[in-house]
Amino acid sequence: MKYYIEYPWQAVLVSYDTTESGMICGATVVDEYWILTAAHCVISPPEESYIFTGLTSLSNPQHTHRVERFVVHPGFDANLIINDIALVKEWSSLSRGTIMITDKQLCAGSKMHGTGPGDSGGPLLARDKIGRLVQLGITSFGAAGFQGLLDQSTYPG
Q: In sequence order, what DSSP letters do the residues of the chain get, joined into one string?
């Protein structure tokens, strides 16, 4: 797979449905606020969806954006698969107001399982091959609706 960073117009839309499952779809950056994707990818309210840009892999997004709103083609029909097009507006500029993740940091958590008040400084733990807990990182910060960001500079994994 080519790295997305080679194609700055490439984005990924992640939407969660009511069963806590998600859909990952490709998207195209149209301008600093909008991306273009397939309408069938819009499966949840905007607050349950995220845009990733500047990716080198799906596990390493350089910019994570909250979705403000969707504009689905009025003639979209999922059964006939016609007019399968939608615009997605990011709540702030796609070129500003993002969370930068460096190669010394990692994201941990999942939907509804991230950091909260008082978590800063706490460990990210995992079990090694023989079952011992090993510290992988230190909780550094989080942002509303996003997983926790962990500083790996002390624990380069």
A: ---GGG-TTEEEEEEE-TTS-EEEEEEEE-SSSEEEE-GGG--S-GGGEEEEES-SSTT--SEEEEEEEEEE-TT-BTTTTBS--EEEEESS-TTSS-----TTEEEE-BTTBS--TT-TTPEEEEE-TTS-EEEEEEEEE--TTS-EEEE-SSS--
Predicted TM-score (pTM) of the model is: 0.55
Tell me if the domain spanning 4-90 has CATH number 1.20.272.10. Answer: no
How far apart are the C-alpha atoms of 63 and 53, rounded to whole Å? 5
Instruction: Give the pLDDT confidence of 37-55 residue by residue, as tens digits.
Output: 888 888 778 888 888 887 6
What lies within 8 Å, CB to CB, of 73 at 6+ separation is 39, 83, 84, 85, 86
Could you state, in order of their start, the residue ranges of all structural domains in the chain? Answer: 4-90, 105-151
**pLDDT tens digits, residue range 87-97?**
899 866 544 44
Q: What count of other Cβ atoms lies within 10 Å of the Cβ of residue 145? A: 15
